[in-house]
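G., the chain you wanted modeled:
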Amino acid sequence: MESRGMPPFMNEGQPGSVVERVGMRQFDCARWLKAGCHRENNSYRGASKIFAEHRYRYSYAVYGVTLLTDLPLSLPEASSSDVVVAVDVVSPGEFPSASERLVTDPDDFVQVAIREDDAVRMRFGSWFEILVASDGTRVLCCNLTDLPLPSFEAYLTNFAVSAALLRQGEEPLHATVVDIGGRAVGLLGPSGAGKSTLAAVLINRGGVLLTDDMLRVTFEADAIFAQPGPYRIKLFSEPADRYLRMGSNRGYWNPFGEKLIFEPSSSGDDRIPRRLSSLYRLEAPSSPLELDRPSLERLAGVALFKTILSSTIGTRLQSRRRLERQFLFAERLARTLPVFRLTYSRNLDNIDYVADCVLDSLANQICEAPLC
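Predicted structure as tokens:
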């Protein structure tokens, strides 16, 4: 596979780094924390007004969001969006001091805390730290080590942007989406469920990656659209070698893990929203016996509702207001999209049968029997 490095997350001591440039303009964290966005129609829109005091070098498009930053990222240039997130980089000495009222298990690699001012603080091991403002329009990043971090962009566009969207009143999903002949299918499931592997099989069969691991949906009348994320997918080397042989290897998801970041060889230039056709929740069989073929079941009632709720991102960031929003979101999604439970044994040799099941259901050829 072709290897092409990702723009690094520049370290504090690196000459001409982004951190040094930010430091030269005397970044004021206290002012940053007090800044806000005008609230209109119960959501934060037109946020670019609050960034007029600093002209960011780059303006990117991701998930239908305009990302303003001084970091050189491998994302397409922004066009227009009414949802804006600004990303600033500061040195460890400039990062706001801890002021949390909720801290998760310190043994978790990703630690999440909510400050007294409702900003969301995230720490990724000993690598870097992120602070998302309470209104979701601003993100602070801090590099904590000299270890090369080619995966920083993936963490930023996944964790930081999803947390910002949550703070702006949206409900991103933990999902991977592939466009198949103009019809987008979403793959749901927790980490390790096989979303990216199944997506790689579908891409190998002519599908086009729309987003991996994080999905932002938007609603238009009676339709739901999947917004395009970064054109990259996280995979272990074996499924990547089998299904994305012509893809570009862009480094490790994290320096100590085995997952790699790949850019599929199929065209990702047409990065426009796609109408979602269906969602598939990937699950392992409840019994230890392996299935010869995958089992596909359309969900309804409580099972449907629970599946959607459990697929939202940032479940550790709960509040009464958010719970009400999640219920409304799940109800609207359930009314509009067919959602299936796709049960199969986690065996790479059987993954082609799983892809067959998805494609058959997409073509309205779902078997009446439990096994497809």
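Confidence is low (pLDDT under 50) at residues 1-25, 37-48, 365-371.

Shout if anything looks off.
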